[in-house]
């Protein structure tokens, strides 16, 4: 963060200085474990914590002031009504000190991968800031914005949400110069009630964008296709099935862990190769290609960047462990991402069997049973030779998969699941581990494959 004064911070957040001599700072921290001398400590309140408890400790560690919602005796304070709102307000103020090519990314699934691909593309062209990991909420996004400085010419931020209003607040803070919506799926349908509701929530990304700022959307998504004609701003579409998409992927071929395809954009055709498989990754790459073109890059430059992409963490991380292939995809799960992961498993070249280990998808509310059954209907013998399901809701996956003729076993205990898998695995098998993060299915994978990098 570039230098700002305490007076400047107070003005930006509508706060009042209390026992707080003015000085310049270059960091605002929300965690006493990251306090550095001369920083400001912002005391957040949460359901299970209160940062105000650590205010004096932060000052003892070298913080020059605390942003708090009340006066703390013997602590220099900037007093505000809400420290959470103050964090967003200061991030919004600070972001507007700079004018990078600023991309905001949201959507039900694929946000992080699309964000990473876009940042990879732009970083070959100029210094680019991006959201670290998935710090895409009202705490994580401000931290990303405060990482800006005058040396960055581009930025890519991810925007997540669990209810209405959240993306609106994030977008107003980030003020994207261009927006991306990857798709409209089922994540957080428990709160938003329907896909129409999810679409309305994702469209809140427009709230922080200029009236003429372009929007890039999935042109194969029935909820997003109409935006081309209903919005009074430039809308660019990308897709595989939609012949009218502005950027269309054609002649898709997957082999040896890579996917090659042609991207057609306004009369030009650019060959692209991604070092990963799955049509969802082709879509993510097409979104990144659109952004690169709108940023004024050359098609070959964009294709060269995409060729170097590598998945990270627990998102469709494919590893070869001895004589078996392991697909670790335990970061999150929804019907759409389940479909994508099963597609990847089905495309793998194997000498043994394709084995699916699927756990519960969380936060689906009253539609949970129906959506788990939907996933079970997606599991076919062509994709999966043997299926293991874990968790109370995944029994509905198991029931529907059995109707498709897939051999399936259901478990409610990880230990039993692990032991049965251990007995079942054979040389040459490929195994997919896929579930919502809260199921911690990676612990089963680690128990079976200690060499697995998680």
Automatic annotation (TrEMBL):
It is an enzyme of class 6 (ligase). One of its GO terms (molecular function) is ATP binding. One of its GO terms (biological process) is cell division. Pathway: Cell wall biogenesis; peptidoglycan biosynthesis. Residues 318-437 form the Mur ligase C-terminal domain. It holds the Pfam family Mur_ligase. ATP binds at residues 107-113. It comes from Ruminococcus champanellensis (strain DSM 18848 / JCM 17042 / KCTC 15320 / 18P13). This is UDP-N-acetylmuramoyl-tripeptide--D-alanyl-D-alanine ligase. Gene3D superfamilies: Mur ligase, C-terminal domain, Mur-like, catalytic domain, MurE/MurF, N-terminal domain. Keywords: ATP-binding, Cell cycle, Cell division, Cell shape, Cell wall biogenesis/degradation, Cytoplasm, Ligase, Nucleotide-binding, Peptidoglycan synthesis. Its EC number is 6.3.2.10. It is found in: Cytoplasm. Residues 105-291 form the Mur ligase central domain. Belongs to the MurCDEF family. MurF subfamily.
